[in-house]
Amino acid sequence: METDNLEPYSTITLPKFVLDLGQVDGQECPSEGSIMKRILLAGLLGGIAMFIWTSIAHMALPLGEAGIREIPNEAALLDALRSSIGKKPGLYLFPGLGLGSNPTHEERSEAMKHMGENLARNPSGILMYHPPGSRPLNMVRWLSIEFVTELAEAFLVVFLLAQTRLTNFGTRVGFIVTGGILAAIATNISYWNWYGFPKVYTMSYMFIQLVGFLCVGLVAALVLKKQTFGAA
């Protein structure tokens, strides 16, 4: 049996996450580790840019309060909520079907037949209710959660960008803004359609999200420059 031509080791070539091997604009491509660091940096700086923008939109601009009003004679309503709902937090829809907690399918179907009349006679809406003292003011916690959320959004959309072969500055920004459009319409349009959220509120929050993703796109395109991605 001849073994002279056999290589001492067998090798398996695995697909690589990034690197279009060779040269880009006459320069040698950076290492995989260097590219990953750049992707992470783009996500981090993009998330910070988004957080700065949303903070400005809510604290310095009227966008965060668009479509939101205070209730006249609020004290009377608060007293009514305490006596009616008490210590049961939750999301309430009114007017309800008036069937209790476990209605049958037949009962729901029959009640839905009269919902149109009920809506015509009564005010309607949704209520997020927290009993007194159950949700204390904690801006540090709320801002921290918001920052982590927006940072995660930025990392995810930059990661998706890294799966493409887009190299042009404008197309990369456009890709991330498209992700922002998806995020903006995913809930805002449905809330306007089904629950009657004010149009000005809906448009304002969609605008805030779109500009936030635009900030991520601009930062990511600047950080990544002309770096290419894709499987080798």
Topology order in helix (H) and strand (E) letters: EEHHEHHEHHH
What average pLDDT do the residues reach? 87
Main β sheet profile:
2 strands, antiparallel
Backbone CA Rg: 27 Å
- Structural shape: elongated
- The CA-CA distance between the termini, in Å, is 37 Å
Portion of residues within helices: 55-70%
In total, the number of domains comes to 2
Q: What share of the residues does DSSP label as strand, in percent?
A: 5-15%
Q: Specify the structural class.
A: mainly alpha
- Which ranges are low-confidence, i.e. pLDDT below 50, for 5 or more consecutive residues? 6-28
Number of helices: 7
Biggest sheet: strands side by side, in what order? 1-2
The number of strands is 4
Write the layout of secondary structure elements.
Layout: E1 23-24, E2 27-28, H1 32-59, H2 74-84, E3 90-94, H3 105-112, H4 115-121, E4 125-129, H5 139-162, H6 169-195, H7 199-224
Antiparallel strand pairs: 1-2, 3-4
Could you provide a short overview of the structure?
This protein is mainly α and 232 residues long.
Q: Could you characterize what this model shows?
A:
The chain is mostly helical. The chain folds into two domains: 23-68 and 137-224, no CATH class; 90-129, no CATH class. The chain has helices spanning 32-59, 74-84, 105-112, 115-121, 139-162, 169-195, 199-224, and strands at residues 23-24, 27-28, 90-94, 125-129. The strands form two sheets. It has a two-stranded antiparallel sheet with strand order 1-2. It has a two-stranded antiparallel sheet with strand order 3-4. A hairpin with a 2-residue loop joins β1 (23-24) and β2. α1 (32-59) runs antiparallel to α7 and α6 runs antiparallel to α7. The model is unreliable at 6-28 (pLDDT under 50).
